[in-house]
Amino acid sequence: MKPTGRDAPPKDVLLVEDNPGDIRLTREAFRETNASVRLHVAYDGVEAIAFLTLQAPHFDAPRPGLILLDLNLPKMDGREVLAHIKQDVSLSSIPTVILSTSDSDADIAKTYQLRANCYLTKPGKLEEFESLVKAIYDFWLTAVRLP
Amino acid sequence: MKTKSPLSRRARRAPRAAASTNESAESGAKYRGLLEAAPDAMVVVNQAGEIVLLNVQAEKQFGYHRDELLGQKVTNIIPEGFAERLIADDLRSAADALAQQIGTGIELTARRKDGSEFPIEIMLSPLESAEGILVTAAIRDISVRKEAEMHLARMEGRYRGLLEAAPDAMVVVNQGGEIVLLNVQAEKQFGYHRDELLGQKVTNIIPEGFAERLIADRTRSAADALAQKIGTGIELTARRKDGSEFPIEIMLSPLESADGTLVTAAIRDISVRKAAEKHLAQMEGRYRGLLEAAPDAMVVVNQGGEIVLLNVRAERQFGYRRDELLGQQVKNIIPEGFAERLIADDLRSAADALAQQIGTGIELMGRRKFGSEFPIEIMLSPLESAEGILVTAAIRDISVRKAAEEHLAQMEGRYRGLLEAAPDAMVVVNQAGEIVLLNVQAENQFGYRRDELLGQMVKNIIPEGFAERLVADALRSTEDALAQQIGTGIELTALRKDGSEFPIELILSPLESAEGILVTAAIRDITKRREAEANLLEKVDELNRSNVELGQFAYIASHDLQEPLRMVASYTQLLSRRYKGKLDADADEFIAFAVDGASRMQRLIQDLLTYSRVGTKGQELLDTSSEEALGHALINLRGAIEASGALVTHDPLPPVMADETQLTQLFQNLVGNAIKYQSPGIPHVHVSAAKYGAKKWTFSVQDNGLGIDSQYFDRIFGMFQRLHKREEFAGTGIGLAICKKIVERHGGFISVESQLGQGSKFSFALSASGEKS
What we know:
Number of helices of chain A: 6
Distance between the termini of chain A: 21 Å
Oligomer: heterodimer
Radius of gyration of chain A: 14 Å
Shape of chain B: rod-shaped
Mean pLDDT of chain B: 79
Helix content of chain B: 40-55%
Low-confidence stretches of chain B: 1-24
Largest sheet of chain B: 5 strands, antiparallel
Strand content of chain B: 25-35%
Order of helices and strands of chain A: HEHEHEHEHEH
Low-confidence stretches of chain A: 1-6
Number of strands of chain B: 27
Mean pLDDT of chain A: 89
């Protein structure tokens, strides 16, 4: 799989996350997997929508192959962003993975109801986080076939 | 003419008288005997008016010697009216003249020798003799009779006065049944004028039964016939002039009169009395029926205290036969208190005396024939009768009632003791809502003196909610109304005398009494309790708030604290990975401490979160297989079990009522501990279950590990309690606290049995399947 990753064009992933520590950790984790990923970051929900709908300043933003979405965000929270994505026919087929520190049952139920593709809790340990990111890459950016 | 004629007659008869002298000597002697034997004075007079013969009674009556009278003129002794009758006149012969007088009693006046005069009655009879016709005169002194007649006339005058003054109609009737006298009342009563009745037959006004009584028959004389009727009230029917009849009572009395025996009849119109008697008879008939029908013993007593009537119940009650009581003093059966009430005294009349007693129930003692006494209640009522006012006494045997009352009095006595001894204020209220009894605590609580409350409405001290409960309404009876309230603590507001209010709790209970159902209210001032309750509510609120805060804290710990901690842990690990051995030895050590601290803190927070979630995130207790829960726990512990090579065994485990997630956690912690705190050697853990009572199971987790000093048995279940150094055994000191909290949430308990070096046995009880804990 690694050769495929290197030779193939890099995959665009949109990370919607306001915590710079998490952004860096995610970037480091993708680096660890040696995946060919171009990680775009939206720091809040509004920016995420702008990115996805090619609004200023993201007129030439690429269509991401995967969205990693945190729930607790400034301006517009992750649930609203999710709802927007899944109601927009041009965006709804983009795999949207919830990556949150919350393990609340209510959050989990609510996001699946909004048609999140899966819900993952951020692990406390570095190794676990790294293996989780690798699993995401292997599954959602490699194995899954999309329309 | 007058003087001539007797002489000529004597002249004519003289030779004949002389011629018969011899012959008449014998007959004269015989005649003389008769003459002397006569009771009256007898004088024989010749036609010349000369006395030719007389008897000794004549001598006595006139006071003369015989020879002083013989040959003398009879006019000497009877100056007028006799001699004249002997003389013939032109119209009649001497014989005729005489004949007219013969046999008739002629009343004349006689004169004695001494010149005094006296009334006489003479009876003449002719006597043919040789000397011509002689006249024998029987002379009776009627002085006494005359005097009597005069007296009677005077009496009659007086009697007439009485007659008119009499209140009754008076009619005097002679033996012929003719009315000879009547008074004005008789005129009025019969509707006749006096002269219409006088001389008339009495049968005109009293058709039957009166006239018959006046008549003598063969067996009795008129006087005897009358005597039988005298003084007796005879009831007859009278008839008025207009023909109408009416009942009368007549009283007869004889009246001797010159006309013979008369009968005076006093006639009383008894229409009114008859009507009254008839009415009374009816009443008495009815009354007797009532008397016998009465449920009580009835005794009728007259003013003399004598029993005049009684019913069969009275016989039974007092044990006498009727004839043993009739006419007897009522004192024999009611020794005291009854007879006294019948008697008038100086201060009041009999009627008043009675009036005071009428209708009142008087409690007395009755005495039976054989002397035993029993309590009675009598009710008196007056009864007007022909015999005067009678008193009817209804007599009720109240032995049973008295006994009940006595019993009740005892009960009330006892009850009062209880009342005062009661710790609560006690108020007894009747059906009208009035306070009839209270204790000293009630006085204190309400601030009233006892006499200020007795008889007052309970509303004064408990304005709402009590009196209403005593009242029956259309939907329920008093008993029902009460029954609903009995024994229930009712919280109300009470009012003190000073107007201040305080909360009370009321417990009602019924009390049967002579006055009907009373309600006893135990009244407790619940001010303090209310305060405590308010306090408690406040505390509960606070606790709830703090629980919520704790829950929020748990969330903060799980989310907001975990977030930065994850950063610290992740980046120190990243640091460690990338720069270990590239800096100096100190840096490596420092980074190692930071990594360790961060990961320990993560564990601590994770455990705290688990602990707090036992209470807040617990699921409903359901039928759960404890064996499956243990299975899940062992899967979770697989790493530790494999690493230690531990042998975990278990008996068949029963289904229990549990939150499966928590039961899994419980097994996981206990088995995990058993593996973790292990002495050198292969850990052996055995899980078993035993019935504990009918509804519970006791689970045990037995190990062969280090064991625990008994002094720490309590401590190990506390938060953050650890018995080992961190270098020996890692851990947060929260695991057993979580176990304890889980078991307690399931309504059970957890305990430990252990000795150092001998392994430990942790036991906990859970409710069997199907049982609520």
